[in-house]
């Protein structure tokens, strides 16, 4: 049986959480929703389709949601060169590669962001070419299960469908 190390990228291997919080703060503020950054930070990791309503309310989501998401993307991308891998991230990937048959990187970030992070981590070697699905990477660089489900008709074995050389453990369902 194959062993797989599945490592999250955005906010775990690469220090992005505060940059995302600031980008959301600025995007919301452009639409007159001033939310304390600490409150936004607590919601980082939640998809943008949920974050706005969670921090600013359903009215802001209904009236400005798409515009805020578009603004956040641009504001975050303006800061992306400031993000860095967390200390020990490269070493963790290398150690995982030594111990596992395959290393898979997972992220719910947008494809361009993940590409940047993979390069920052010097982790491209050994990963197949990335394929885009709905703007998100979804091959050996695996994205969120919800995003993959949006690309698949049959969701019973998403990981194997996305990484054909990986044998899913018995009973694993995503």
Break the fold down into its secondary structure elements and pairings.
Layout: E1 4-8, E2 14-15, H1 17-29, H2 37-41, H3 48-56, H4 58-79, E3 84-85, H5 89-99, E4 102-107, H6 111-120, E5 132-133, E6 136-137, E7 141-143, H7 145-149, H8 158-162
Parallel strand pairs: 1-4, 4-7
Antiparallel strand pairs: 2-3, 5-6
Helix pairs in contact: 1-4, 3-4
Radius of gyration: 17 Å
Sheet with most strands: strand arrangement:
1-4-7
Number of helices: 8
Structural class: alpha/beta
Helix content bin = 40-55%
Total count of domains: 2
Mean pLDDT: 78
Number of strands: 7
Distance between the termini: 18 Å
Structure description:
This protein is of the alpha/beta class and 174 residues long. The radius of gyration is 17 Å and the shape is elongated. It contains 8 helices and 7 strands, in the order ββααααβαβαβββαα. The strands form 3 sheets. A 3-stranded parallel β-sheet has the order 1-4-7. The two termini are 18 Å apart. β5 and β6 form a beta hairpin. The protein has 2 domains: 4-14 and 85-162, no CATH class; 17-82. The chain has helices spanning 17-29, 37-41, 48-56, 58-79, 89-99, 111-120, 145-149, 158-162; strands at residues 4-8, 14-15, 84-85, 102-107, 132-133, 136-137, 141-143.
What is this structure, in a nutshell?
This protein has 174 residues and is of the alpha/beta class. It folds into two domains: 4-14 and 85-162, no CATH class; 17-82.
Descriptive keywords:
two-stranded antiparallel ribbon; disordered C terminus; elongated; alpha/beta; 8 helices; 3-stranded parallel β-sheet; 174 residues
